[in-house]
């Protein structure tokens, strides 16, 4: 079938909306009519080739839509089902079988090769050349796309598909790093570095978990103000003061939990230094391969801290996304406050607004 898709062409270049040919779903895929797709910082860094995903390709990995065709081997999905689409994983390696599919041994190939495992692409350009597909198992910046079925999460018939796509990556990443990995106790303290969509989702999750001191750190005053309105008990502008000392003062020695959503080496060090004794920190912000952070391991040793690096909130999307939807429905996880919708034709404006900090979580509505 013919479909319109936003094609990523190269570093820093605008996406171009083109008409492409979409092939038939493979036995393990479903064809989804996308209703909406979130825009994630990761789409921008892939377009800019921080990771060597072959371009041209259709990116997008926070899709939500309606199943229009079902591959011959797919179980549990029917035409008309509404789905939120998460990353692809193999389901067979030891990490998948241990309940950690976001650490699937085949995760990189399945999500970042822009090819199916058989080497094909779902999209072909008018001149017959292949256009990369299956980004995060989905390539959701397209009106129709073929999606790896086991990455999908079926949602209720009346679910707000124009809101739920970001649960498949950015929101799941921040919320999962907090709820699944750091697991703050009620009444505990947490510092979150970076108040983008991932950091704000982490903040909402920390509040839902009952953390009583939630310190948000950023360099953009308007974002810090927004964070205070949504649940931050304290904010620190790290351009104006050293966050580790500010946090030590606020908490009497350091936080119990901390999260770096920036991937900036200096911020990772600040995050580590803001932990109290036996604190637990985590990194979710993405950096270019080869990036090193300046950390004083001499002082760190005696503080007994632990550190995790977290992919996609270490979630099992089929279990975790419905929990986030349930929390959202009862008002305990108001992530809709982070979103703003854009028409498909305005996709480059959505990326520009995300980069400038104007919009926390753009959602393209088809
Ligand atoms: P974003 O760009 O919306 O937010 C980043 C925030 O960090 C911004 O508010 C920015 O002002 C702040 N920041 C930048 N430099 C800073 C500094 N020096 N000190 C303090 N704050 C600073 O991005 P996002 O969508 O929230 O994503 C955050 C990161 O998470 C990105 O790197 C993204 O690629 C990554 N990510 C990782 C995963 C994963 O599985 N680990 C999944 C999704 C996204
Ligand atoms: Zn993402």
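Q: What amino acid sequence fits the structure above?
A:
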């Amino acid at each position: 079938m013919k479909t319109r898709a936003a094609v990523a062409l190269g570093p820093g270049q605008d996406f171009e909306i083109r008409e492409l040919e979409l092939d038939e779903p493979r036995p393990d895929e479903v064809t989804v009519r996308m209703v909406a797709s979130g825009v994630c910082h990761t789409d921008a860094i892939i377009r800019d080739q921080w990771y060597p995903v072959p371009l041209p390709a259709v990116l997008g990995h926070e899709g939500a839509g309606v199943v229009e065709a079902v591959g011959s081997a797919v179980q549990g999905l029917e035409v008309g089902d509404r789905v939120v689409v998460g990353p692809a994983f193999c389901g067979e390696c030891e990490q998948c079988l241990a309940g950690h599919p976001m650490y699937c041994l085949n995760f990189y190939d399945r999500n970042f090769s822009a090819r199916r495992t058989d080497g094909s692409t779902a999209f072909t350009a008018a001149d017959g050349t292949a256009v990369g597909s299956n980004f995060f198992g989905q390539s959701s910046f397209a009106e129709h796309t073929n999606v790896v079925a086991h990455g999908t999460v079926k949602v209720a018939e009346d679910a707000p598909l124009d809101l739920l796509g970001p649960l498949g990556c950015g929101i799941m990443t921040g919320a999962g790093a907090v709820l699944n990995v750091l697991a703050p106790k009620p009444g505990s303290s947490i510092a979150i570095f970076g108040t983008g969509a991932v950091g704000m989702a982490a903040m909402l999750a920390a509040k839902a978990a009952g953390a009583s001191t939630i310190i948000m750190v950023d360099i953009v005053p308007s974002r810090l103000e927004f964070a205070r309105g949504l649940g931050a008990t304290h904010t620190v502008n790290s351009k104006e003061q050293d966050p580790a000392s500010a946090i030590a003062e606020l908490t009497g020695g350091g936080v119990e939990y901390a999260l770096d959503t920036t991937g900036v080496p200096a911020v990772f060090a600040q995050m580590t230094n803001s932990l109290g004794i036996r604190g637990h920190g985590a990194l979710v912000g993405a950096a270019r391969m080869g990036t090193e952070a300046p950390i004083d391991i001499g002082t760190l040793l005696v503080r007994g801290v632990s550190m995790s690096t977290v992919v996609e909130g270490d979630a099992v999307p089929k279990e975790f996304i419905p929990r986030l939807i349930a929390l959202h429905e009862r008002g305990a996880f108001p992530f809709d406050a982070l979103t703003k919708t854009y028409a498909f034709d305005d996709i480059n404006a959505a990326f520009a607004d995300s980069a400038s900090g104007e919009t926390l979580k753009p959602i393209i509505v088809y």
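Q: And what stands out in the fold?
A: The pocket of nicotinamide-adenine-dinucleotide (ligand 1) is lined by residues 40-42, 45, 169-170, 173, 193-199, 217-220, 223, 238, 261-264, 267, 284-286, 310-312, 357 (CB under 6 Å).
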